Amino acid sequence: MKKNELKSLKEECYEYNMLLPSLGLVIYTFGNLSCVDRGRGVFAIKPSGVPYETMSWQDIVVLDFDCTIIDGRLRPSSDAKTHALLYRNFNHAGGIVHTHSTYATAWAQACRSVPIYGTTHADHLNHEIPCTSLMSDAQIDGDYETETGVQIVETFAKLHLSPEDVQMVLVASHGPFAWGESAEKAVYNSKVLEELCRMAQLTESLARKPERMKDSLVQKHYERKHGTAAYYGQEKKK
Amino acid sequence: MKKNELKSLKEECYEYNMLLPSLGLVIYTFGNLSCVDRGRGVFAIKPSGVPYETMSWQDIVVLDFDCTIIDGRLRPSSDAKTHALLYRNFNHAGGIVHTHSTYATAWAQACRSVPIYGTTHADHLNHEIPCTSLMSDAQIDGDYETETGVQIVETFAKLHLSPEDVQMVLVASHGPFAWGESAEKAVYNSKVLEELCRMAQLTESLARKPERMKDSLVQKHYERKHGTAAYYGQEKKK
Amino acid sequence: MKKNELKSLKEECYEYNMLLPSLGLVIYTFGNLSCVDRGRGVFAIKPSGVPYETMSWQDIVVLDFDCTIIDGRLRPSSDAKTHALLYRNFNHAGGIVHTHSTYATAWAQACRSVPIYGTTHADHLNHEIPCTSLMSDAQIDGDYETETGVQIVETFAKLHLSPEDVQMVLVASHGPFAWGESAEKAVYNSKVLEELCRMAQLTESLARKPERMKDSLVQKHYERKHGTAAYYGQEKKK
Amino acid sequence: MKKNELKSLKEECYEYNMLLPSLGLVIYTFGNLSCVDRGRGVFAIKPSGVPYETMSWQDIVVLDFDCTIIDGRLRPSSDAKTHALLYRNFNHAGGIVHTHSTYATAWAQACRSVPIYGTTHADHLNHEIPCTSLMSDAQIDGDYETETGVQIVETFAKLHLSPEDVQMVLVASHGPFAWGESAEKAVYNSKVLEELCRMAQLTESLARKPERMKDSLVQKHYERKHGTAAYYGQEKKK
Question: Does residue A160 lie within any of the structural domains?
Answer without folding.
Answer: yes
